[in-house]
Write a structure and sequence with these properties.
25 helices, alpha+beta, 736 residues, disordered C terminus
């Protein structure tokens, strides 16, 4: 059959490069609409130069052009363009303020005005992202191109914004003409409609008689929104998962027939199951492997399926049509296939597992229970009890364990003394037995072909299962007499041996399961399973010890259960990324303290960070997406992006107060003046994220950025100025 490999690596890389170009063009289009044609050309040239330098730096670092590194560049497009946008927008604004000055006079002061906050804002984004590069475990090396490429790109974009962008502005921007713009209360500033809008917006909070009440009401509303957002994953509206299923071009059906099943019966069963699966319109072809495993893939490597070789074992490799020719993703198709194959398996007392290619974590199964204890029999008994409880847990499917089902075994013991006396060698007896079962080439048929066909001699298939028929075969004694094998062989009844597993040299028995249904996250399936296991006791009558993140220590005296699988990887990943998040917040705080020389201002500047969750969690809930490790990366990046906006606002208030403007006017003017660059950079970041929204793996990152930036940007323009206003008893004094 023809194997469908789906998209090649080169095709995927070309598609991602196209997305990168589209994202860049979209950002330039935003600048064109907001500022003008010449400004858009300058920003576009700065972005292209930054991307080229970042790609060179990435190559020098040792990264290859792969899916993750390209996604890192696409996601960071909005971040890389921020510096150039802020500089060009401020030059454009100064042209409007000082129309009679030349560009040579305007550019130094315009760049100097945003230089300090831009440098600080750039380093805060780097401080938020870079600690992720030191995350250990499985996700660290996998996701390291994102923080490293983005951090290198931020440094390069900062250099381009301060060195190349002013030079391009001097030569490419058009000299302004006309009268200066007049803003709030006659001060030079943003367009009049923007000033009036923010004056009306801030009036209830700063100038009305009940301003304190309205500010408290706003704070309570924001806290309520945060609480609701946090509650969404707790109640299950947003599912927490390590990584979502990717849209692959294949899945497997792993089959275990009853022990002792002949290869021919296994093959017939697999073909019957393959015929049932062809009912799915998305199935292109199916490869049947009876008695052996499919060619090694990720599952074969991680879950050791490539070692499955026995007559009662089988494997179906189900290949799907191309992604462009089907509406459903591979995970939805696999979910539909499970009841079909289970119905066939129930008629033959077989066990089947529908196995998809894992999106990332190399684990034995999504849910793994490791059973430890002093005796083999006790571990098997406890494993069967755990398996029985998992089978009645809602959502648990494909439940199996590492024990071997009890089955009789016949051992043929040769009477060496009698065989020796009658001149029959043990080799002859074994050779006759092998001939009866496997066959032996007795002659060759020469039919004028290049290779003669072997004439195989063996028992008929119907008689091979009859031990008496096998032992009726004869051997020649030294007297040339034909004697049946039953005279030289004694049949001894026995039981099939158990396979012994060890982890870190400690005997262990595994119970594995998968989770399916509306909620396919192993975390929630494990939580429900633990409710079933609450009253479970070991074979010794004692309660079993339960472990989640560490291995049991006393395994030779007590029975214990260690939960492993995707839940363990999820815990380690979110733990390490949470630690990186905390380190990033500390670094941001220290950077802002060093810049403003105050311990209060950094708290105000970092206050919008919790606001990002108001957008992130409801965004995942609205789109029905799971909160994954890539979603967490988006939240970490949001911390640096949103602090950047706060710095621009607080720094402008600082400048206004130094010029003698009252605190109320400075607060309103900061939002009105910095709204355009803040909104423009936010739209740029959201546009970059929009192009990775359709990717199954990085979908969470895109949702976090789009909804997090949208909500937090809107709230930041209101909350940060009000926090500055509320924290100063003397309204007209400097905030430093």
């Amino acid at each position: 059959m023809t194997r469908n490999y789906g998209e090649t690596a080169n095709q995927k890389a070309l598609q991602l490069i196209q997305k990168l170009l589209f994202a860049t063009g979209s950002v330039v289009l935003l600048v064109l609409i907001a500022l003008g044609r010449r400004e858009a050309v300058i920003v576009g040239a700065a972005v292209v130069l930054t991307l080229a330098a970042t790609l060179f730096a990435s190559w020098a670092w040792g990264f290859t052009i792969n899916r993750v590194s390209l996604f890192a560049l696409i996601f960071s497009i909005g971040i890389l363009v921020d510096d150039a946008i802020v500089v060009v927008e401020n030059i454009h604004r100064h042209q409007q303020l000082f129309p009679h000055k030349s560009l040579g006079e305007i550019i130094p002061s315009a760049v100097d005005e945003v230089g300090g906050p831009t440098i600080l804002a750039t380093f805060t984004v780097i401080a938020a992202l870079l600690p992720m590069a030191f995350v250990s475990g499985l996700m660290g090396p996998y996701m390291s191109p994102i923080p490293i490429n983005a951090s290198m790109g931020m440094l390069i974009s900062l250099a381009v914004a301060f060195v190349v962008t002013p030079w391009m502005a001097l030569h490419w921007m058009k000299e302004s003409s006309g009268s200066s713009a007049t803003g709030y209360h006659g001060h030079q500033g943003p367009p009049l409609w923007i000033s009036r809008f923010f004056a009306a917006l801030f009036y209830p909070f700063t100038r009305s008689s009940r301003s304190l009440f309205y500010r408290v009401l706003l704070a309570m509303a924001v806290l309520a929104l945060i609480a609701v957002s946090v509650w969404l994953p707790i109640r299950g509206s947003v599912v927490l998962k390590m990584l979502p299923f990717d849209n692959k071009s294949e899945f497997q059906v792993v089959v275990d027939m009853p022990d002792g099943t002949r290869l021919e019966k296994t093959d017939a069963f697999l073909k019957e199951m393959a015929l049932v699966l062809t009912q799915l319109p998305e199935v292109q072809d199916i490869q049947v492997y009876a008695g052996l495993s499919a060619p090694i893939n990720f599952n074969g490597l991680v879950r050791q399926y490539n070692l499955r070789q026995a007559p009662h074992l089988g494997d179906l490799q189900v290949n799907l049509v191309d992604k462009s020719m089907r509406e459903q993703k591979s995970h939805a198709i696999a979910v539909q296939a499970r009841p079909l194959v289970q119905a066939v398996a129930a008629r033959h007392s077989a066990r089947v597992k529908v196995v998809e290619v894992p999106p990332g974590p190399p684990v034995l199964s999504p849910v793994v229970a490791e059973i430890y204890g002093p005796s083999d029999e006790g571990r098997r008994e406890l494993a069967q009890a755990v398996r029985g409880l998992l089978e009645v847990t809602p959502g648990m499917v494909d439940i199996d364990d590492s024990t071997v089902d009890p089955s009789p075994k016949k051992i043929l013991v040769i009477d060496r003394r009698k065989a020796s006396l009658m001149g029959v060698s043990q080799q002859e007896i074994v050779s006759v037995l092998r001939t009866g079962l496997s066959g032996e080439s007795a002659a060759y048929l020469h039919d004028a072909t290049k290779y003669p066909a072997a004439v195989s001699l063996r028992l008929p298939e119907a008689r091979q299962e009859n031990l008496n028929a096998l032992l009726a075969l004869t051997v020649r004694t030294s007297q040339r007499e034909a004697r049946p094998l039953s005279e030289f062989v004694t049949v001894v009844d026995a039981q099939r041996e158990q396979v012994r597993y060890r982890k870190d040299l400690v005997p262990v028995t595994y119970v594995v399961a998968d989770v399916a249904g509306e909620n396919d996250s192993p975390l929630y399936g494990l939580a429900q399973a633990r409710l079933q296991l609450a009253e479970l006791q070991g074979p010794d009558g004692q309660p079993i010890a339960e472990y989640f993140i560490s291995q049991p220590k006393d395994t030779y005296r007590n029975y214990s259960l260690k939960w492993d699988g995707e839940s363990q990887i999820t815990y380690e990943t979110f733990r390490d990324m949470g630690a990186a998040y905390a380190v990033g917040l500390v670094l941001i705080y220290l950077l802002v303290v060093a810049q403003f020389g105050s311990y209060l201002i950094p708290v105000i500047i970092m206050a919008p960070i919790p606001l990002t969750i108001i957008g992130v969690m409801p965004g995942h809930a609205m789109l029905g997406s799971q909160f994954t490790a890539t979603s967490m990366i988006g939240m970490i990046a949001l911390a640096g992006i949103i602090v950047r906006n706060s710095i621009l606002l607080v720094d402008f208030i600082h400048l206004q107060l130094e010029q003698g403007v009252s605190l109320k006017d400075a607060v309103e003017a900061s939002a009105a003046t910095r709204a355009q660059p803040i909104v423009l950079t936010a739209l740029a970041a959201m546009t970059g994220a929009l192009f990775i929204l359709d990717d199954p793996i990085f979908n969470g990152l895109a949702i976090s950025l789009i909804f997090g930036i949208l909500v937090s940007t809107v709230l930041t323009l209101l909350v940060i100025p009000l926090l500055v206003y509320s924290t100063h008893a003397e309204p007209d004094t400097s905030i430093t």
